[in-house]
Amino acid sequence: xxxxxxxxxxxxxxxxxxxxxxxxxxxxxxxxxxxxxxxxxxxxxxxxxxxxxxxxxxxxxxxxxxxxxxxxxxxxxxxxxxxxxxxxxxxxxxxxxxxxxxxxxxxxxxxxxxxxxxxxxxxxxxxxxxxxxxxxxxxxxxxxxxxxxxxxxxxxxxxxxxxxxxxxxxxxxxxxxxxxxxxxxxxxxxxxxxxxxxxxxxxxxxxxxxxxxxxxxxxxxxxxxxxxxxxxxxxxxxxxxxxxxxxxxxxxxxxxxxxxxxxxxxxxxxxxxxxxxxxxxxx
Length: 283
What we know:
This protein has helices at residues 2-13, 40-43, 59-68, 71-80, 83-86, 94-104, 124-182, 195-218, 224-241, 249-281, and strands spanning 18-24, 105-109, 115-121. By secondary structure, it is mainly α. α4 runs antiparallel to α7 and α8 packs antiparallel against α9 (224-241). The termini are far apart.
């Protein structure tokens, strides 16, 4: 009986706590050069106050969860609602305030990939406001990172395209010099019909290399898309490794120029698409 009485007294003395929840539906995963929703590579710069969770989750869900748990988002909530005062952090220690907020907020990924933000607070209105503000901050951070990501990827492809154009100019000049020096005109019909197929392989290789590089900058941890691209690149390299060396210089020069032309043709659409995405995200 005495135990029961003590328990009742303690329960009456404890302050009431309220819980508020907000639900977030992350964007569906899209192709590498579609809208990524949020920028995975930029997320590496957001130090997290909690463990992020399973790497097996879809990219959009994982990225949203990473932003919500990031120090940037948590500190924004602390400043917005003056939680240092609420949590009685006398020495204005951000680490103590972060620990307090971490204890009072929970992020759960549901079976349908929705993310639930659950906030506990002594004030029911503030609990709801904090939950909603997490969603606002998520939107703000993801938009900012998306703009940075689009610009970064555009610049990356632009640099690779510039290198390919320089190499194309070099090979064309080498072929022109050979023709002028030897007084011959190297025409496509004089060369193997396999030239176009070989050039296509090299163009595909350059495209896959850029896709893989950007994907590695976009997602973290093990990813099936990365593994698939690595398999495809390995197969392309295997095929290219079986091609015979060209002995005739005119044929070699023509093939090199054709390859670089095809590489540029593959890269230009990628660059134009990224440039368009960069303009859209910067609005």
